[in-house]
């Protein structure tokens, strides 16, 4: 039997809440994920769901747009999960933190660029001075002990291989990307599956260090500081997703798309540390 996708429990929870069902046979599944689901009827309410990288900025935008708006915003389904849910009619707006594949675009899903999200290597503020270099991080990932200035062992935290942020980091630092993959294969360090899990672990695990969107740190006021290991800016593209099947059924969808593309939303996100969707 094939490996069950890590996102399956989240998808099952969403589908159960929306009145759908997943099973081993009969039905439709998310592209490339091996999950087969019966068509999902629309639940009462307005649903926005997808990549965990977008959850925190989307909450901020919703508060600025219409405080108290009745919207379902479940935790991370991933970009692929958002595409599948849109195609099945389970959600109204999807959230993406990576470019869609050609196969995903062929489903009719449309991308609406929102912002670029800088990514940083984060440590706990209480660790005085970083003193951690790229070479130190690679060595630690490979099992060679390193410690912070106060003597606390450095504990790297990883995201799964397919995570959008992990892909950006690996592309910018190939040696680091290879070390992260070796650590995953060896099960040497914890692997976190959502941005919320990573944020919680960075704050709570003694000596932790890991990559996370800087906008999440600022908006959620996390007690974390950035460790600079390179000069280049690391950023991933955030976007809203729509599908013809669901785009017109609730007027709030078009209204939010209009707001998110406007100057007020852009200014709010820039103030939180995000970058304009298009480089200027």
Characterization of the model:
There is one protein chain. The protein is of the alpha/beta class and 280 residues long. The protein folds into 2 domains: 8-116 and 235-271, D-Maltodextrin-Binding Protein, domain 2 (3-Layer(aba) Sandwich); 117-227, 3-Layer(aba) Sandwich (D-Maltodextrin-Binding Protein, domain 2). Helices cover 38% and strands 19% of the residues. It is built from 12 helices and 12 strands. Strands 4, 5, 6, 7, 10, 11 and 12 form a 7-stranded mixed sheet that branches. It has a 3-stranded antiparallel sheet with strand order 1-3-2. Strands 8-9 form a two-stranded parallel ribbon. Helix 5 (134-141) runs parallel beside helix 7 and helix 6 packs across helix 7 (174-186). Residues 1-13 and 15-43 have low confidence and may be disordered.
CATH fold field value of the largest domain: D-Maltodextrin-Binding Protein, domain 2
Structural class: alpha/beta
Number of helices: 12
Rg over CA atoms, rounded to whole Å, is 19 Å
Percent helix range: 25-40%
Order of helices and strands: HEEEEHHEHEHEEHHEHEHEEHHH
| Oligomeric nature of the chains | single chain
Q: What best-fitting shape do the alpha-carbon axes yield?
A: globular
- β-sheet strand percentage: 15-25%
Please, what is the average pLDDT? 85
Supply the CATH superfamily name of the largest domain.
Periplasmic binding protein-like II
User: Main sheet, how many strands, which sense, barrel?
Assistant: 7 strands, mixed
Q: Uncertain spans, ≥5 residues at pLDDT below 50?
A: 1-13, 15-43
Distance between the termini: 49 Å
Number of strands: 12
CATH class of the largest domain: Alpha Beta
CATH architecture of the largest domain: 3-Layer(aba) Sandwich
Q: Give the number of domains.
A: 2
